[in-house]
Design a protein that fits this description.
- Helix 1 packs across helix 2 and helix 2 packs antiparallel against helix 3.
- The longest helix has 23 residues.
- By secondary structure, the chain is mostly helical.
- The protein is built from five helices and no strands.
- The chain starts with 20 loop residues before the first helix and ends with a helix.
Length: about 120
């Protein structure tokens, strides 16, 4: 893993150089799950933001699980979750989004993104 360049199968967005390691790891996890035929280089910024949100949510979730009564952590969790949902819709990450933008997922395949988000 690390900061090696990875791109979508159709030559879509390249991973930005110099990403923090945790964000780089998230990029490496989610980019292969995305609908590569729909992504272009101009989507790199959205992916950059999405990976940052997911990395932050992982940290917030870890802290929140230790102290679920912390109002600041709960608020941050809700805000970052809302941002995740908004950006996910732009990239067709949910089954409803894929149907709306007509991205096919073979029915026999289990949706890897659903597993990832859980």
């Amino acid at each position: 893993m690390g900061n090696a360049d990875t791109s979508t199968p159709d030559g879509g967005p390249d991973k930005p150089k110099g990403l923090p390691q945790v964000q780089s790891d998230v990029w490496d996890e989610i980019v292969p799950m995305l609908p590569g035929d729909a992504l272009r280089q101009r989507d790199a910024f959205i992916l950059y933001e999405l990976t940052g949100i997911i990395a932050a949510l992982r940290q917030i979730n870890g802290e929140w699980l230790l102290d679920p009564k912390d109002k600041d952590l709960r608020c941050a969790k809700m805000q970052y979750t809302q941002k995740l949902i908004q950006l996910s819709g732009l990239l067709g990450l949910s089954p409803a989004d894929r149907k709306r933008i007509q991205i096919d997922t073979p029915k026999e395949e289990k949706d890897e993104l659903d597993e990832f988000i859980e």
